[in-house]
Structure formats: structure tokens, C-alpha cells
């Protein structure tokens, strides 16, 4: 029996386009008030083709909102000391408000040391241990872009998330863990599933909000999804099907018609990630220029 596909498709592409338009206005306003153009530096080490595509997209979109973009492409043979030197220069550069080192790094480099060498106030990825700690303890943090984009779409669709059961599938530092922290901060009851979880389908079936970020094509089947759930699919997987190359998510989209809403792949979470990176750069700029970008405190 074919059940009708009733789930709303959450339009991440349109949502990101709106956000980017508002950011472009914000950037113009900041320039007018400060005489300074916000700037984002992106560092790419090596020739990973997917990373090169992401970095080019970040460069294009940074320029498109009127910000400065500084892309540093380094050879795969770059040493830890050379990368640390570059980060020290970028930390000190006043025209650079945000710094992102594209991951993964070549295996000989220590990613944690690299991330923690970025000035936390310029850490627009939100991966620095200080930002992770701030997020975990409810303090003002720069928040990782992909989970931030997921949260914005969830709040847009659901309003308050308070009291809802949320299941996050995947416990990466980039998505799963910060996603769980953000949902907890919204007063969700949060469970995180991973490769050692005993019964992932049963846990997923308890979720009012299901966020999947594991990088396994169509892992989550229709009968793992509770009717009326909101599903956020972070996966972007290239597969061969019927002799054609296709991009699919971590959720079997065609089986999810009984969800209330689901992000499609492509066109769901993906476009929100870069939009949130630009938003974080504007946030970082404002925090670095508090006297000219924030209303004066009321006289006491
Ligand atoms: N590689 C895959 N996703 C990301 C991301 O959000 N930030 C960085 N720096 N690298 C990534």
C-alpha cells in the first residue's frame, strides 16, 4: 500500500536566502556605523576535493554579503608550526573578525591543538574548547554552524521546543554534541544515539524531534520515525542508484511521509550551514566592536 507523503518539506534553501539577505543589510549598517568591513579568514590545508568545494562556496558567499574574505590555501605538507604561525597572524589581524580552519586536516596535524590556537572570540566555527564549554554551561558562545542552522529551522517550525523529546543520532564534536547542548538549552529532553546504542530504532521512535548526523545513506527508515515528528537530516551522501550518481541524506526520505516536517537533501540543512557561518562572523564582529555596535547602557 502506498501511503501519501504528507510531511512538510522544510525549505532550508529559502530560509538561508532570507537569513543571508538580512545579514547583507546588517553588514551595510555596520560599515556605515564603524567604517569597517567585517572579514572572514578560511584556512584550507591540502587538496581534499570536498573541502575545496566547501571553501570556495564560503568565499563566494562571504563576498556576496559584502564582507571581506581571506582564503589561505596551504599545501598538505604544511607543518604544525607553520599552521600555528598563520593562526597567530590571523588572531592579531584587525581586519579578520572570524577564523575557520576547514576540517578534516591532514593526519600529521593535531586538529585539537589547531582549533584551540584560534582566538575564541574569532572562532566562528564554535569548536574552540572555550566556546564548547560556554555552550555547555549556558554562557554566551559562538555556536557551531550546522547545529545552529538546525535549531533555527526547528524553532521556526515549532516555536517553543520546551518539554519535547529530542533524539540526536550521531555524537560528533561538529554536529551531534553541540546539537544536543542546544536542544537541552531549549528545555528538550535529549537522548544521543551512536554506534554502541542498543536499540536505535526504538529510541528514534520516542522522538518528537529527530536530528540525524551520521553520514550513513538512508540509515533511518520510515518505521523509526514517530508520526508527527519533525525530522532534521544533516547527512549529505553521494550514492549510485539506477546507474546515476545522487545525493541522499541519512534518512530514507521517501519513507518519512508521516512526519510532520522533514528537511530534504539537498536543499535542507546544507544551505543553512554557510548562512550561519556568516551570521557568526557578524556576531563576532559586533562583540569585537561593542561600543559602536551595541546600544549604550542605560545611565544608572
Ligand atoms: N568540515 C565539515 N564541516 C565543517 C565545519 O562545519 N567546519 C569546519 N571547519 N570544517 C568542517
Automatic annotation (TrEMBL):
Pathway: One-carbon metabolism; tetrahydrofolate interconversion. Residues 144-288 form the Tetrahydrofolate dehydrogenase/cyclohydrolase NAD(P)-binding domain. Keywords: Amino-acid biosynthesis, Histidine biosynthesis, Hydrolase, Methionine biosynthesis, Multifunctional enzyme, NADP, One-carbon metabolism, Oxidoreductase, Purine biosynthesis. SUPFAM superfamilies: Aminoacid dehydrogenase-like, N-terminal domain, NAD(P)-binding Rossmann-fold domains. One of its GO terms (cellular component) is cytosol. One of its GO terms (biological process) is purine nucleotide biosynthetic process. InterPro entries: Aminoacid_DH-like_N_sf, NAD(P)-bd_dom_sf, THF_DH/CycHdrlase, THF_DH/CycHdrlase_cat_dom, THF_DH/CycHdrlase_CS, THF_DH/CycHdrlase_NAD-bd_dom. Pfam families: THF_DHG_CYH (PF00763), THF_DHG_CYH_C (PF02882). Residues 10-125 form the Tetrahydrofolate dehydrogenase/cyclohydrolase catalytic domain. It catalyses: (6R)-5,10-methenyltetrahydrofolate + H2O = (6R)-10-formyltetrahydrofolate + H(+); (6R)-5,10-methylene-5,6,7,8-tetrahydrofolate + NADP(+) = (6R)-5,10-methenyltetrahydrofolate + NADPH. GO terms for molecular function: methenyltetrahydrofolate cyclohydrolase activity; methylenetetrahydrofolate dehydrogenase (NADP+) activity. It comes from the Bacteria. Its EC number is 1.5.1.5, 3.5.4.9. The keyword NADP applies. NADP(+) binds at residues 170-172, 236. Belongs to the tetrahydrofolate dehydrogenase/cyclohydrolase family. Homodimer. HAMAP family: THF_DHG_CYH (MF_01576). Catalyzes the oxidation of 5,10-methylenetetrahydrofolate to 5,10-methenyltetrahydrofolate and then the hydrolysis of 5,10-methenyltetrahydrofolate to 10-formyltetrahydrofolate. This is Bifunctional protein FolD.
